[in-house]
Design goal:
This protein is an alpha/beta fold. Helices cover 36% and strands 15% of the residues. It contains 11 helices and 12 strands. Strands 1, 2, 3, 4, 5, 6, 7, 8, 9 and 12 form a 10-stranded parallel sheet that branches. Strands 10-11 form a two-stranded antiparallel ribbon.
Protein backbone atom coordinates (compact mmCIF):
# COMPACT_ATOMS: atom_id res chain seq x y z
CA UNK A 1 0.00 0.00 0.00
CA UNK A 2 1.27 3.45 -0.89
CA UNK A 3 1.13 5.98 1.96
CA UNK A 4 0.87 9.65 1.03
CA UNK A 5 3.69 11.87 2.23
CA UNK A 6 1.65 14.94 3.22
CA UNK A 7 0.10 15.43 6.67
CA UNK A 8 -3.44 16.70 6.09
CA UNK A 9 -6.04 16.77 8.85
CA UNK A 10 -8.14 13.74 7.98
CA UNK A 11 -11.16 12.01 9.49
CA UNK A 12 -11.44 9.13 7.02
CA UNK A 13 -8.63 6.78 8.03
CA UNK A 14 -9.04 3.08 7.31
CA UNK A 15 -7.70 0.39 9.60
CA UNK A 16 -5.45 -0.93 6.83
CA UNK A 17 -3.87 2.51 6.35
CA UNK A 18 -3.08 2.76 10.05
CA UNK A 19 -1.69 -0.78 10.13
CA UNK A 20 0.56 0.14 7.20
CA UNK A 21 1.92 3.13 9.12
CA UNK A 22 2.58 1.02 12.21
CA UNK A 23 4.44 -1.51 10.07
CA UNK A 24 6.85 0.96 8.43
CA UNK A 25 10.58 0.49 9.10
CA UNK A 26 11.17 2.37 12.34
CA UNK A 27 13.61 4.95 10.85
CA UNK A 28 11.07 5.81 8.15
CA UNK A 29 8.21 6.03 10.65
CA UNK A 30 10.20 8.29 12.99
CA UNK A 31 11.23 10.55 10.10
CA UNK A 32 7.60 10.97 9.00
CA UNK A 33 6.44 11.61 12.56
CA UNK A 34 9.19 14.17 13.25
CA UNK A 35 8.36 15.94 9.98
CA UNK A 36 4.68 16.16 10.94
CA UNK A 37 5.62 17.41 14.40
CA UNK A 38 7.80 20.24 13.08
CA UNK A 39 4.99 21.54 10.89
CA UNK A 40 2.99 22.58 13.94
CA UNK A 41 5.25 22.61 17.00
CA UNK A 42 8.73 23.48 18.20
CA UNK A 43 10.25 19.98 18.67
CA UNK A 44 12.39 21.21 21.57
CA UNK A 45 9.37 22.21 23.70
CA UNK A 46 7.33 19.87 25.89
CA UNK A 47 4.14 20.88 27.67
CA UNK A 48 4.29 20.04 31.37
CA UNK A 49 1.08 19.11 33.19
CA UNK A 50 0.33 17.99 36.74
CA UNK A 51 -2.53 15.62 37.56
CA UNK A 52 -4.17 15.55 40.99
CA UNK A 53 -6.69 12.97 42.16
CA UNK A 54 -9.29 15.13 43.88
CA UNK A 55 -11.47 12.10 44.71
CA UNK A 56 -9.78 8.71 44.83
CA UNK A 57 -11.14 5.16 44.69
CA UNK A 58 -14.56 3.63 45.19
CA UNK A 59 -15.49 3.70 41.50
CA UNK A 60 -18.36 1.32 40.56
CA UNK A 61 -16.96 0.62 37.08
CA UNK A 62 -15.11 -2.62 36.25
CA UNK A 63 -12.34 -1.27 33.97
CA UNK A 64 -9.86 -4.16 34.03
CA UNK A 65 -6.81 -1.88 34.29
CA UNK A 66 -7.98 0.41 37.08
CA UNK A 67 -6.92 0.14 40.75
CA UNK A 68 -9.65 2.62 41.70
CA UNK A 69 -12.47 0.18 40.90
CA UNK A 70 -14.20 -0.69 44.17
CA UNK A 71 -14.53 -4.36 43.20
CA UNK A 72 -10.77 -4.93 43.00
CA UNK A 73 -8.48 -5.33 46.01
CA UNK A 74 -5.55 -3.09 45.12
CA UNK A 75 -4.81 -1.27 48.35
CA UNK A 76 -6.35 1.99 47.09
CA UNK A 77 -8.55 3.51 49.78
CA UNK A 78 -11.61 5.49 48.79
CA UNK A 79 -11.56 9.15 49.76
CA UNK A 80 -14.05 11.99 49.69
CA UNK A 81 -13.80 14.95 47.34
CA UNK A 82 -10.96 17.23 48.41
CA UNK A 83 -11.60 20.70 49.78
CA UNK A 84 -11.05 23.54 47.32
CA UNK A 85 -8.31 25.19 49.37
CA UNK A 86 -6.32 21.94 49.43
CA UNK A 87 -6.60 21.58 45.66
CA UNK A 88 -5.48 25.17 45.15
CA UNK A 89 -2.45 24.58 47.40
CA UNK A 90 -1.44 21.63 45.20
CA UNK A 91 -1.95 23.76 42.09
CA UNK A 92 0.35 26.46 43.47
CA UNK A 93 3.02 23.82 44.11
CA UNK A 94 2.63 22.49 40.57
CA UNK A 95 3.01 25.96 39.07
CA UNK A 96 6.09 26.64 41.19
CA UNK A 97 7.60 23.39 39.89
CA UNK A 98 7.09 24.51 36.28
CA UNK A 99 3.71 23.05 35.31
CA UNK A 100 1.54 25.13 32.99
CA UNK A 101 -1.50 22.86 33.09
CA UNK A 102 -3.33 21.42 36.10
CA UNK A 103 -5.65 18.43 35.72
CA UNK A 104 -8.16 17.34 38.36
CA UNK A 105 -9.39 13.74 38.33
CA UNK A 106 -12.23 12.16 40.30
CA UNK A 107 -12.98 8.43 40.39
CA UNK A 108 -16.66 8.64 39.51
CA UNK A 109 -18.67 6.76 36.91
CA UNK A 110 -20.30 10.15 36.44
CA UNK A 111 -20.60 13.11 38.81
CA UNK A 112 -23.90 13.92 40.48
CA UNK A 113 -25.32 17.35 39.80
CA UNK A 114 -24.59 18.30 43.42
CA UNK A 115 -20.87 17.62 42.80
CA UNK A 116 -20.53 20.08 39.92
CA UNK A 117 -20.57 23.35 41.95
CA UNK A 118 -17.77 21.97 44.16
CA UNK A 119 -15.63 21.07 41.16
CA UNK A 120 -16.52 24.37 39.50
CA UNK A 121 -15.13 26.22 42.54
CA UNK A 122 -11.85 24.31 42.20
CA UNK A 123 -11.66 25.18 38.51
CA UNK A 124 -12.23 28.89 39.11
CA UNK A 125 -9.54 29.07 41.79
CA UNK A 126 -6.96 27.10 39.81
CA UNK A 127 -7.68 29.15 36.69
CA UNK A 128 -7.10 32.33 38.73
CA UNK A 129 -3.52 31.15 39.30
CA UNK A 130 -2.88 31.47 35.56
CA UNK A 131 -2.84 27.72 34.93
CA UNK A 132 -4.57 25.92 32.09
CA UNK A 133 -7.28 23.73 33.63
CA UNK A 134 -8.38 20.19 32.82
CA UNK A 135 -10.80 17.82 34.54
CA UNK A 136 -11.69 14.14 34.24
CA UNK A 137 -14.80 13.15 36.16
CA UNK A 138 -16.32 10.33 34.12
CA UNK A 139 -19.42 10.61 31.96
CA UNK A 140 -21.03 14.06 31.70
CA UNK A 141 -24.46 15.32 30.74
CA UNK A 142 -24.76 18.32 28.45
CA UNK A 143 -25.73 20.63 31.32
CA UNK A 144 -22.79 19.45 33.43
CA UNK A 145 -20.35 20.09 30.59
CA UNK A 146 -21.77 23.59 30.15
CA UNK A 147 -21.46 24.32 33.87
CA UNK A 148 -17.78 23.30 33.84
CA UNK A 149 -17.16 25.48 30.79
CA UNK A 150 -18.85 28.42 32.52
CA UNK A 151 -16.54 27.90 35.52
CA UNK A 152 -13.53 28.41 33.27
CA UNK A 153 -12.52 24.83 32.44
CA UNK A 154 -10.22 24.67 29.41
CA UNK A 155 -10.06 20.91 28.72
CA UNK A 156 -12.10 17.84 29.57
CA UNK A 157 -10.49 14.41 29.49
CA UNK A 158 -12.51 11.34 28.50
CA UNK A 159 -10.45 8.54 26.95
CA UNK A 160 -11.75 5.93 24.52
CA UNK A 161 -9.32 3.49 26.18
CA UNK A 162 -9.04 0.96 23.33
CA UNK A 163 -10.28 -0.25 19.95
CA UNK A 164 -14.08 -0.65 19.81
CA UNK A 165 -13.46 -4.29 18.79
CA UNK A 166 -11.49 -4.94 22.01
CA UNK A 167 -13.48 -2.69 24.34
CA UNK A 168 -15.81 -5.43 25.59
CA UNK A 169 -12.83 -7.49 26.75
CA UNK A 170 -11.72 -4.67 29.07
CA UNK A 171 -14.89 -2.94 30.32
CA UNK A 172 -18.41 -4.29 30.89
CA UNK A 173 -20.12 -1.57 32.94
CA UNK A 174 -20.48 0.86 30.04
CA UNK A 175 -20.09 0.67 26.29
CA UNK A 176 -18.16 2.72 23.76
CA UNK A 177 -21.26 4.72 22.80
CA UNK A 178 -21.39 6.11 26.36
CA UNK A 179 -17.94 7.56 25.74
CA UNK A 180 -18.93 9.02 22.38
CA UNK A 181 -21.98 10.62 24.01
CA UNK A 182 -19.86 12.37 26.64
CA UNK A 183 -17.45 13.56 23.96
CA UNK A 184 -20.36 15.09 22.06
CA UNK A 185 -21.53 16.93 25.20
CA UNK A 186 -18.00 18.23 25.77
CA UNK A 187 -17.64 19.47 22.19
CA UNK A 188 -21.10 21.05 22.22
CA UNK A 189 -20.19 22.96 25.41
CA UNK A 190 -17.19 24.47 23.62
CA UNK A 191 -14.55 22.77 25.77
CA UNK A 192 -11.18 21.75 24.39
CA UNK A 193 -10.75 18.06 24.78
CA UNK A 194 -8.26 15.42 25.82
CA UNK A 195 -8.91 11.92 24.50
CA UNK A 196 -6.61 8.96 24.04
CA UNK A 197 -6.22 5.42 25.25
CA UNK A 198 -4.17 2.70 26.89
CA UNK A 199 -1.88 0.31 25.04
CA UNK A 200 -0.35 -2.91 26.31
CA UNK A 201 -3.59 -4.42 27.65
CA UNK A 202 -3.16 -7.56 25.56
CA UNK A 203 -4.53 -6.04 22.37
CA UNK A 204 -3.09 -6.84 18.94
CA UNK A 205 -1.37 -4.35 16.64
CA UNK A 206 -4.56 -4.40 14.55
CA UNK A 207 -6.47 -3.30 17.63
CA UNK A 208 -3.95 -0.56 18.41
CA UNK A 209 -4.54 0.61 14.84
CA UNK A 210 -8.28 0.54 15.58
CA UNK A 211 -7.86 2.81 18.60
CA UNK A 212 -5.83 5.35 16.61
CA UNK A 213 -8.26 5.15 13.69
CA UNK A 214 -11.23 5.80 15.99
CA UNK A 215 -9.52 8.77 17.63
CA UNK A 216 -8.50 10.36 14.33
CA UNK A 217 -11.94 9.80 12.79
CA UNK A 218 -13.83 11.62 15.54
CA UNK A 219 -15.69 14.76 14.34
CA UNK A 220 -12.62 16.79 15.31
CA UNK A 221 -9.23 15.60 16.43
CA UNK A 222 -8.62 15.62 20.18
CA UNK A 223 -6.71 18.73 21.18
CA UNK A 224 -4.67 16.47 23.44
CA UNK A 225 -4.06 12.74 22.89
CA UNK A 226 -2.73 10.92 25.98
CA UNK A 227 -1.11 7.60 25.09
CA UNK A 228 -0.91 5.49 28.24
CA UNK A 229 1.27 2.40 28.64
CA UNK A 230 -0.52 -0.05 30.91
CA UNK A 231 0.51 0.01 34.54
CA UNK A 232 -0.22 -3.60 35.54
CA UNK A 233 -1.49 -3.19 39.11
CA UNK A 234 -1.70 -6.13 41.50
CA UNK A 235 -5.32 -6.97 42.21
CA UNK A 236 -6.67 -5.90 38.81
CA UNK A 237 -7.58 -8.44 36.08
CA UNK A 238 -4.64 -7.20 33.97
CA UNK A 239 -2.05 -7.58 36.74
CA UNK A 240 -0.16 -10.35 34.92
CA UNK A 241 -0.30 -8.82 31.42
CA UNK A 242 3.00 -9.02 29.55
CA UNK A 243 4.60 -5.61 29.07
CA UNK A 244 4.26 -4.08 25.61
CA UNK A 245 7.45 -4.07 23.54
CA UNK A 246 9.02 -0.59 23.91
CA UNK A 247 9.45 -0.14 20.16
CA UNK A 248 5.77 -0.94 19.64
CA UNK A 249 4.96 1.87 22.07
CA UNK A 250 7.20 4.25 20.10
CA UNK A 251 5.44 3.18 16.89
CA UNK A 252 2.10 4.02 18.50
CA UNK A 253 3.31 7.50 19.49
CA UNK A 254 4.72 8.17 16.02
CA UNK A 255 1.57 7.00 14.25
CA UNK A 256 -0.61 9.16 16.50
CA UNK A 257 1.56 12.16 15.61
CA UNK A 258 1.22 11.52 11.87
CA UNK A 259 -2.53 10.98 12.02
CA UNK A 260 -3.28 13.90 14.36
CA UNK A 261 -0.50 16.36 13.47
CA UNK A 262 -1.92 19.39 15.32
CA UNK A 263 -2.75 17.61 18.58
CA UNK A 264 -0.64 17.51 21.72
CA UNK A 265 0.54 13.89 22.03
CA UNK A 266 1.05 13.14 25.70
CA UNK A 267 3.15 10.53 27.47
CA UNK A 268 0.90 9.63 30.37
CA UNK A 269 0.68 6.55 32.60
CA UNK A 270 3.59 4.13 32.50
CA UNK A 271 6.40 6.70 32.36
CA UNK A 272 7.76 5.51 35.71
CA UNK A 273 8.61 2.22 34.04
CA UNK A 274 10.14 3.85 30.94
CA UNK A 275 13.88 4.33 30.60
CA UNK A 276 15.25 7.74 29.70
CA UNK A 277 16.17 6.27 26.32
CA UNK A 278 12.60 5.15 25.63
CA UNK A 279 11.22 8.55 26.61
CA UNK A 280 13.78 10.23 24.34
CA UNK A 281 12.63 8.06 21.42
CA UNK A 282 9.03 9.05 22.16
CA UNK A 283 9.95 12.75 22.02
CA UNK A 284 11.68 12.11 18.69
CA UNK A 285 8.48 10.36 17.55
CA UNK A 286 6.40 13.47 18.23
CA UNK A 287 5.35 13.28 21.88
CA UNK A 288 5.30 16.84 23.21
CA UNK A 289 3.49 16.70 26.52
CA UNK A 290 4.01 14.87 29.82
CA UNK A 291 2.50 14.63 33.26
CA UNK A 292 4.93 15.97 35.81
CA UNK A 293 5.36 15.23 39.50
CA UNK A 294 5.46 12.35 41.94
CA UNK A 295 2.05 10.77 41.34
CA UNK A 296 -0.24 10.08 38.40
CA UNK A 297 -3.49 9.58 40.29
CA UNK A 298 -2.81 6.24 42.03
CA UNK A 299 0.42 5.11 40.34
CA UNK A 300 3.95 6.47 40.42
CA UNK A 301 5.32 9.06 38.04
CA UNK A 302 8.93 10.13 37.45
CA UNK A 303 9.75 12.86 39.93
CA UNK A 304 10.29 16.47 38.99
CA UNK A 305 14.08 16.45 39.35
CA UNK A 306 14.45 13.40 37.09
CA UNK A 307 12.24 15.02 34.44
CA UNK A 308 14.21 18.28 34.53
CA UNK A 309 17.49 16.37 34.31
CA UNK A 310 16.23 14.45 31.28
CA UNK A 311 15.07 17.67 29.61
CA UNK A 312 18.52 19.14 30.18
CA UNK A 313 20.28 16.10 28.70
CA UNK A 314 18.03 16.18 25.62
CA UNK A 315 18.07 19.95 25.12
CA UNK A 316 14.33 20.23 25.76
CA UNK A 317 12.48 22.91 27.69
CA UNK A 318 9.01 23.24 29.21
CA UNK A 319 6.49 24.80 26.87
CA UNK A 320 4.99 28.10 27.94
CA UNK A 321 1.22 27.96 27.62
CA UNK A 322 -0.96 31.03 27.87
CA UNK A 323 -4.13 29.70 29.51
CA UNK A 324 -6.12 32.22 27.49
CA UNK A 325 -4.61 31.09 24.21
CA UNK A 326 -4.05 27.33 24.60
CA UNK A 327 -3.26 25.42 21.39
CA UNK A 328 -6.18 23.76 19.66
CA UNK A 329 -6.03 20.70 17.45
CA UNK A 330 -8.30 22.20 14.81
CA UNK A 331 -10.03 25.49 14.30
CA UNK A 332 -13.37 23.74 14.85
CA UNK A 333 -12.52 22.40 18.30
CA UNK A 334 -11.60 19.01 19.80
CA UNK A 335 -12.83 15.92 21.61
CA UNK A 336 -12.23 14.15 24.96
CA UNK A 337 -12.39 10.97 27.31
CA UNK A 338 -12.40 9.28 30.79
CA UNK A 339 -9.13 9.07 32.68
CA UNK A 340 -9.96 9.03 36.38
CA UNK A 341 -7.75 5.98 36.85
CA UNK A 342 -4.10 4.99 37.03
CA UNK A 343 -3.82 5.06 33.26
CA UNK A 344 -5.03 8.62 32.70
Amino acid sequence: MQIVSAFPVRHDWSRSEVEALLALPLPDLLHRAASAHRLHFDPTEVQVSTLLSVKTGGCPEDCSYCPQAARYHTGVEATKLMETEDVVAKARQAKAAGASRFCMGAAWRSPKDRDIPKVAAMIREVKALGLETCATLGMLSGSQATALKDAGLDYYNHNLDTDPEFYGDIIHTRDMQDRFDTLAHVRDAGLKTCCGGIVGMGESRRQRAGLLMTLANLPSHPDSVPINRLVAVEGTPLADTKALDPFEFVRTIATARIMMPRSMVRLSAGRAEMSDELQALCFCAGANSIFYGEKLLTTGNPDTERDLALFDRLGLRPMHVDAAEAPAAEASGGCGGHCACANG
